[in-house]
């Protein structure tokens, strides 16, 4: 650490921190929740974030990130190039939050006064430091083995944000995603073209999960039934904004076709599946309510402070903090939170989803949107 002064003015001690978190996209975004706490603990914080190129837009404009260095964790040459870009040869604290072997090796090779997270043991095998046991003990590197990790995952009742704040000894925070002006402008134009203004009730539907976790999805017919039931319960027109990424194009077409057949007071709007991360986040921000799976859209929606109803079957609802922005609908089937490719989603019913949605809309009536519709 170093301390500087200019003209008698004492500056805060500079604390150099390297945060290694490259993926997945949702995990990168939710890790930003620790940054305000780190800044409070270390007023002279200079934080460098090592991240994948795909995830860089999620952190490069953050007010507390001093520098972003990108890499592809699976490419040795990319990691070598990233090392040359790092602004320091010695770090006060390295936070190594990915468990890939290449990143464990990368973290272990750094000169750091303190390292927390994934690294190598004396035999050169991936492991992690004791201070991050509450998180890594539920993951692939768990020192207790997979069965113990799975048991702890099911029994855990603390959110990712709570666990990380406690491990790092900082105050809890929430994810932040500052958007470029162009993303706001693109979303505003989309709203104008679609006829969405401040009087419109907009429900975003992001009910897929990118193809990897099919059991995170809500079945198409249930999405359509939900929309009809919600519009009927509201007793007014609801504009349904159908959202998703490239992998959801075919699925979203099915949803759109089903919605257009409903005999209910609705408008159907295709948000497209071709947008970059920031534009996608801005489009999510147009919603008064977002119905979403446990996916990137959930984390983006929370960063945009959109009221949400999120549903969970194979993954843990407890691990997700909604920061007072919504309701969770978790499966009550026996295989809930089993992290299996296929699980029972039958208890995530239309009735439960509509009841949660009505509560969220009532609780957040008059909310100011971070993304304007004009």
Describe the overall structure.
This protein is an alpha/beta fold. It folds into 2 domains: 164 residues, Rossmann fold, CATH 3.40.50.2000; 183 residues, Rossmann fold, CATH 3.40.50. 34% of the residues lie in helices and 19% in strands. It contains 13 helices and 16 strands. The protein has a 6-stranded mixed sheet. Helix 9 links the parallel strand 11 and strand 12. Helix 1 packs parallel to helix 12, helix 8 packs across helix 11 and helix 9 crosses helix 13. The termini are far apart.
List the helices and strands and how they pair.
Blueprint: E1 5-6, E2 9-10, E3 14-20, H1 25-31, H2 35-41, E4 44-52, E5 67-71, H3 76-85, E6 90-91, E7 93-96, H4 101-108, E8 111-112, E9 115-120, E10 126-128, H5 133-136, H6 146-155, H7 160-168, H8 181-194, E11 202-206, H9 220-234, E12 238-242, H10 249-260, E13 266-270, H11 277-284, E14 289-292, H12 296-303, E15 308-312, E16 326-330, H13 350-363
Parallel strand pairs: 3-4, 3-7, 4-5, 6-8, 7-9, 11-12, 11-14, 12-13, 14-15, 15-16
Antiparallel strand pairs: 1-2, 9-10
């Amino acid at each position: 650490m170093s301390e500087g002064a200019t003209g008698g003015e004492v500056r805060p001690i500079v604390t150099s921190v390297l945060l290694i978190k490259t993926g997945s996209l949702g995990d990168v975004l939710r890790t930003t929740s620790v940054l305000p706490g780190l800044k409070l603990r270390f007023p002279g914080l200079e934080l460098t974030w090592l991240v994948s190129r795909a995830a860089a837009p999620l952190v490069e404009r953050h007010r507390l990130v001093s520098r972003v260095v990108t890499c592809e964790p699976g490419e040795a040459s990319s990691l070598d190039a990233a090392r040359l870009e790092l602004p320091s040869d010695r770090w006060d604290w390295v936070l190594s939050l990915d468990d890939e072997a290449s990143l464990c090796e990368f973290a272990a090779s750094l000169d750091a006064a303190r390292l927390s997270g994934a690294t190598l043991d004396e035999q050169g095998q991936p492991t992690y430091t004791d201070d991050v046991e509450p998180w890594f003990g539920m993951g692939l590197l768990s020192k207790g083995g997979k069965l113990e990790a799975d048991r702890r995952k099911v029994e855990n009742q603390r959110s990712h944000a709570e666990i990380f704040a406690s491990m790092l000894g900082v105050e809890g925070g929430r994810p932040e995603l500052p958007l470029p002006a162009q993303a706001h402008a693109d979303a505003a134009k989309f709203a104008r073209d679609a006829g969405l203004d401040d009087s419109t009730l907009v429900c975003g539907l992001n009910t897929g999960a990118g193809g990897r976790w099919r059991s995170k999805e809500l079945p198409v017919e249930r999405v359509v039934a939900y929309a009809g039931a919600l519009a009927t319960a509201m007793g007014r027109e609801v504009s349904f904004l159908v959202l998703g990424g490239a992998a959801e194009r075919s699925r979203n077409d099915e949803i759109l076709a089903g919605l257009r057949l409903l005999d209910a007071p609705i408008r159907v709007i295709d948000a497209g599946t071709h947008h970059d991360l920031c534009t996608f986040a801005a489009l999510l921000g147009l919603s008064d309510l977002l119905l979403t799976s446990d996916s990137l859209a959930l984390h983006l929606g929370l960063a945009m402070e959109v009221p949400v109803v999120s549903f969970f079957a194979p993954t843990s609802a407890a691990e997700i903090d909604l920061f007072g922005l919504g309701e969770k609908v978790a499966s009550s089937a026996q295989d809930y939170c089993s992290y299996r490719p296929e699980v029972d989603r039958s208890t995530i019913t239309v009735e439960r989803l509509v009841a949660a949605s009505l509560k969220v809309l009532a609780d957040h009536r008059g909310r100011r949107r971070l993304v304007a519709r004009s």
